[in-house]
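Following up on my earlier thread - several people asked me to post the actual chain instead of describing it. Fair enough. Here it is, all 122 residues.
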Amino acid sequence: MTKYTEKIDEETGESVFTFNAELVKVGETVLKNINEKNYKIVEVKFHLPDGKLVERSAICYASNYDYGLKIGKSYLTTLSFDEEGDPQLSMSHLSNAGRATVEDFAGLLQVQQQVIEKEFVV
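Reply from S.P.:
Thanks for posting it. Predicted structure:
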């Protein structure tokens, strides 16, 4: 199941959603946007919020695909909405690994605390 994380776009103040999507296909044609940035159309696979598995097109800028992309690998994808409210997907070259939590290191912190406490025992 796809996990969506809501963030606020610092430039627009609008909500965007990030999630992992599996790369299915990379288009061969290099296109340019209105800012003269090169991009390719890619096809990604992910679960919609209702659980349905879908394949959808997304853009991937040259600054991302120049790192190299691997079919079948999951990449960080951002969902935003244009002025008309239509969804826009953009895929990066980064893998969106799970963020570390305090619970991940709870045992380490307990061990450190125990060692410190033992040092001060008379």
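DSSP finds two helices and seven strands in the chain. That should answer part of your original question.
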